[in-house]
Structure formats: C-alpha cells, structure tokens
Amino acid sequence: MLILTLRTDNPQAEIGLYESNEKLAYEKWVAHRQLAETIHTKILDLLKTQDKQWSDIQAVVCYKGPGSFTGLRIGISVANALASSLDVPIESSTGDDWIEISIKKIATKSFTSPVMPVYGTEVHITQPRT
Prior knowledge:
Layout: E1 2-7, E2 12-19, E3 22-30, H1 35-49, E4 59-63, H2 69-86, E5 90-93, H3 98-107
Helix pairs in contact: 1-2
C-alpha cells in the first residue's frame, strides 16, 4: 500500500512516501510562506522519484498539530482533498511517532475522515469592525 505523508505545522514542510511501514522517499524543505505554491509540485516530484503517479497513492497520512494555523490549514486541506479525490483513506496523529501511529490505524481500518487540525490554542481571528 503506497502511503503519502504530509507535515506542514512549521516553516519546514515534510512529505514522504511509504510502502506500508517501509520508507521509500522523504523530503524536507523550507516552505514557509510558499507552502501553498510548492506543496503539489513537491509531492509530484517525490512521486516521480519512485516512478509513481497520483493514482498510485492508496492512503494519506498527515500531522494534525499543534502548530502553525496557516501551515496546518494548507497541509490538511491538501491531504483531505487528495484523499477525497483519490477515494483513499486518510488518518492523522501528533507526536514524534505520528507516521507510525497513523499507518497502523490505516492498516487496521480504524481511520477517520476528514482530518481536522489541532492548533494547540484558540484561533485568534480579527473581529469585524462595527
């Protein structure tokens, strides 16, 4: 089972490809404010390094937080959209072993959909002017 992993909670984004528990490829890059512009290209390039296509992805795993509001929002939106469009399971977790935990949930079919971010604090939104 080809699994795409995404972590976008800080300025250094991470993506990976796993065949079940075996890491095939992994990339980190300083995405910072260009995350929305670079994430799809980075995923496509990673797939190409393994001679894979979008349609080969069989599950999506992402880091759900805590972390940057914008980074998590972009990464989790991409993860949910990919899982939905490819009709594959999606799972998320947190902590140092987020990938292993999420892959185990996918393998045991105890995943949830869609994934929701955990920001670690209340979101501060500018109040509308009255």
